[in-house]
Structure formats: C-alpha cells, structure tokens
Write a structure and sequence with these properties.
globular; about 300 residues; eight-stranded mixed β-sheet; alpha/beta
C-alpha cells in the first residue's frame, strides 16, 4: 500500500522504515527536513508539505499521524481535511486521549473521512521487534488498512479493539499498568540498594529473567540500564509523565473504578520533580508543635 506518514520522530521514523521493509510505499513528511532526508535515505518519498503529501497519494488516501497528543493532532487534521474525500482514512498512532479521539472521529466523519485510533506500543525497539497495536474505529476501514497493521506488528500483535476511541482507551490502560509495574520495580530495587547486603543489582535483574514470576521486558530494560551504570549515578531522580497515567486515573474516577497502584505510581512521579516539599515541611512542623520533636533547620 502507499501511505502518507506525518511525524518522523523516535517512533515515526522507525515505523516508516519497518513499513518500507515490508514492501509498502511511503510518502514522508515532517517539519524537520533532516528527518525527512533520513526517511528518504531508507526508501521513502519526500513531501514538502502536507498538501504535497496528499497529492502524491493514490485515489483512496491513507495517512498516518505520529505527532504529539493534543494540538498537533488537531492542527494536522484541520490542515489535511479540506484535501481529503469520502472514504479516505486518517490514522492517529500517537497517545491521544480517547475522548478527544471520539470527538475527532465525529468531525472527520462529517466529511466522510474515516478516523482510526491506533494505540502503538514498542518504543525505540519496535523497528526490530514490531509494534503492539490496539485499533479502534470503523471496522471496514480498519480491515482495509490491515496490511499496514500486520506489517508493523509482530505475529499476534495486532487487535481490533472496537468502536472509535477503543484503541486509544486500551493503550491508555496499558500505559497506566506500565506506570505501576515500573514503580514496583523501582521500589524493590531501591530496597535492595538500601539493604545491609552488598547486592549485585545487575545480577539480580539478570537472574530474575530465568524462571521468575516477575520476569518481563521492563526487567530486561532494567538490566540494560544497570549494566551501563550500576549505581545510576549519571541520572537525576526526576521522572516525567506524558499524560496517559493522568488520563487513566481520570477515567477510573469517571467509571467508579479503584486503581490505587496506578494512581500512587503517578503521584510518585509528581513527587520526584519536587526540589522541596512544602507538605513534608508542614509534617515536620506539626510533629514539632504537638510533640516537641526535633526538626532540621535550613
């Protein structure tokens, strides 16, 4: 198939390369000319603008958006929609909030354009290992572009999740679970680091990969990180979030669903960004006030 692809960053560039290796024709566009040139060097056709990309596609156009969530998605849709016709397909492969996806699908359907949401997991390793894909939207449109999904995904790594928004909803929950798993590993390894034993944490992460019930790909990545810097001395204890954990917690509130582990893992990331905690200062002050307990002065 011939596909337009918008967004050639860490994920997008590798996805274009994997699609090219699977025999698809790619028309690549990015605001960075350097990224476009990198895609061209791998066999893609360059587009100088979104309009130019649309002109280079066949009669029924398929365009994959791999841009940051929020305004960049809306801006891309607004720029593309006037050039698209009934039956054309837009795919949002980024981490968009599922409620916004539903709204976007309503907007595009008014023009007869199908809007597919494709939750994409695999990170920078997806080029080699394939991407786990969770797809939502009109089923017939999804089936039409199934060759694209099958090229990107490993065997059994692609699921039609349901109506518009379902793909992004499942990916959101996936990322929420990821938050909780990562937090559990972080806490466990910190406890071992603070123990009276001189533990080889890299060795522990390795042995847990063989027969342990906590073995996982995330643990493999921990092994990689610890092999490069056993004490992680080159890292700051600052952890960013990209939104999916917040959306998961908000959706749990909306649906009266308790998710304490995921919620606390999100709050732990917030705490990691504090240079000082006013709340902790108040706790110290209260202990001093009611019990005369010692406090540390600045």
């Amino acid at each position: 198939m011939k596909i337009g692809f918008v967004g050639l960053g860490k994920m997008g560039g590798n996805m274009v390369e994997r699609l090219l290796s699977g025999g698809h024709e790619m028309v690549a566009y990015d605001r960075s000319q350097e990224e476009v040139e990198a895609a061209v060097s791998k066999g893609a056709e360059a587009a100088s603008s979104l309009a130019d990309m649309v002109d280079r596609l066949p009669e029924r156009k398929i365009i994959w958006l791999m841009v940051p969530a929020g305004a960049p998605v809306d801006e891309s849709i607004q720029a593309l929609l006037p050039s698209l016709k009934q039956g054309d397909i837009l795919i949002d492969g980024g981490n968009s909030f599922w409620r916004e996806t539903q709204s976007r699908a309503e907007t595009t359907s008014a023009s007869g354009v199908h809007f597919i949401d494709c939750g994409t997991s695999g990170g920078v390793w997806g080029l080699k290992n394939g991407y786990c894909l969770m797809v939502g939207g009109d089923k017939a449109a999804c089936e039409f572009v199934e060759p694209v999904f099958k090229t990107l995904a490993p065997t059994d790594g692609y699921l039609y999740a349901g109506a518009s928004g379902a793909g992004h909803f499942v990916k959101m929950v996936h990322n929420g679970i990821e938050y909780g798993m990562m937090q559990a590993y972080a806490e466990g390894f910190e406890l071992m680091k603070n123990s009276p034993f001189d533990l080889d944490l890299h060795g522990v992460s390795q042995v847990w990969q063989h027969g342990s019930v906590v073995r996982s790909w995330l643990l493999e990545l921990a092994t990689n990180a610890l092999s490069e810097d056993a004490d992680l001395k080159n890292l700051k204890d600052y952890v960013q979030d990209s939104g999916e954990g917040r959306w998961t917690v908000q959706s749990a509130i909306d649906f009266d669903t308790p998710i304490p582990v995921i919620t606390m893992s999100l709050f732990a990331r917030f705490q990691s960004r504090q240079e000082e905690s006013f709340g902790m200062k108040l706790l110290a002050a209260l202990r001093n006030q009611f019990g005369g307990h010692a406090v540390k002065q600045r």
